[in-house]
Amino acid sequence: MLLWFVIAYLVISIGIGLLAAMKVHNSRDYFVAGRHLPIFVVFAMVFATWFGAETVLGISATFLTDGLGGLVSDPFGAALCLILFGLFFARPLYRMGLLTIGDFYRRRYDRPVEMITSICIALSYLGWVAAQITALGVVFNVLTEGYVSREAGMIIGASVVLVYTLFGGMWSVAITTAVQMVIIVVGLLIITWMVADQAGGVVTVVEHAAANNKFDFWPAFSTPELLAFVAAWITMGFGSIPQQDVFQRVNSARTESSAANGTIFGGVAYLLFAAVPLFLAYSATLIDPQMVENLIDVDPEQILPSLIYHHLPLYAQVIFYGALLSVIMSTASGTLLAPSATIAENVIKNLLPAMDDRHFLRMTRIVVVCFAVLVTVYALSTAATIHHMVENAYKVTLVSAFIPLVAGIYWKRATTQGALTAIVLGIGSWLLMEIFLPEGDSMWPPQLVGLLCAAVGMVLGSLLPQRYGRAVVVQA
Question: What is the pTM of this model?
């Protein structure tokens, strides 16, 4: 019975997405919904896209094993990204009227910078989208009590998300996400109330977690641990700023104020509401300690779904899995569209500049299909956890795209030569560290070294005599 409710929900989601596809008439509609979205929808998209599988299944599992200190990248780094983007990046980027974040690098620097950063941005999505596909596999596996394997569940889930994203683009993402956000918030609050009652109340759960040091957040006062803490925070906090999904939501807003404020509100709401799945997962240690003990070393991401499936009535399971599917699909659809748009606009279009808008829209949809297949294959082949996949996704954009973006907006003397030097030094030093001194073998995290080298490269490359490219000033 529960499975049929879930199937019905998936069918309804596809229907809503396909109805929204009727609004798509050109590539601008497909990429940024014609820039017609009000602040509530922008807020809903920001919140629901980031409140994904890693929030409900990934970070809740990490909280059980590592406590709050294991969550510095997400939700704390993720919320930092959204708030910083709304405060410092949303308005200047919105005024430029761009189609993708990659367009900024072309307009501010040149096409080689655009191509390199766009490829890096697209590659960074492999881990994030794969995390959502993996979570869909977990859900279908639990709901069918193992009849549908995790691998088959991944393929089914990826197919569902692909259908409505493929045809409706940003319009489908926006409308389905607005509906899904309501389901997420209402559904998880109802489940929290029911679980808290079984666990002995909110205070009991919080006191138990505190007694077991689960709220220890700050690292030990030693150089290696402080550097690791900072690196984890800024990997997502800074590395996810030059991302197409954040930019796409901002750029779809009806006004500049809606773009900035919707992103800030979404970031704050995400940080606050991320506490809900942490509470739910930890409640399992009081409600069913044997189940937690059996799963925590084997597959901790199964703890929360198993708690709901075995300890709540059918109607509550329907609410939870409806909310969980909303969480996953809202993130998966947005993060599937973002890299596909970047590849189509900033890589393929540069190679085939003679395409008209109709052929460009068709080509973009082909890229969406290809990326969906690629990310599903990656999800099926990797053994990484959901949280780990998301956590590692932003290292490449941190070392390659963040410094050129910041300098391009706020430093008038930034040049193309500086951007290229930053990219080469950032990626080069990061890769060398990953190969020869990976995290754990050195007190310096590789991505932090890459970020610092990129900053040095931008300054030196811009101030040294110019031998390549041009300098273009963009008013913030």
Answer: 0.87
